[in-house]
Design brief:
Helix content is 56%, strand content 0%. It has helices at 4-28, 48-51, 55-63. It starts with a helix and ends in a 5-residue tail after the last helix.
């Protein structure tokens, strides 16, 4: 357990940090920090026949996983 002096010191530091942040936040709000938006599109239609594998192909793929 922390002593009274340590607790008071930490509370004082946290109070100072909060005061500084409350002062800085309105000044920084003028700057927008965002990532560029990304356009999400559905890919080309894939035929269901392209998704099917026979058991041998599946076993081969599972045994020899391709890593880039």
């Amino acid at each position: 357990m922390l002593g009274e002096a340590v607790t008071q010191h930490r509370l004082h530091l946290l109070t100072q940090i909060v005061r500084l942040l409350l002062t800085m936040i309105p000044q920084q709000r003028g700057l927008i920090l965002r990532e560029q938006s990304v356009l999400y599109e559905a890919g080309a239609q894939i035929a269901e026949s392209d998704l099917t594998m026979n058991r041998g192909e599946l076993e081969n793929l599972l045994q020899n996983v391709p890593f880039p």
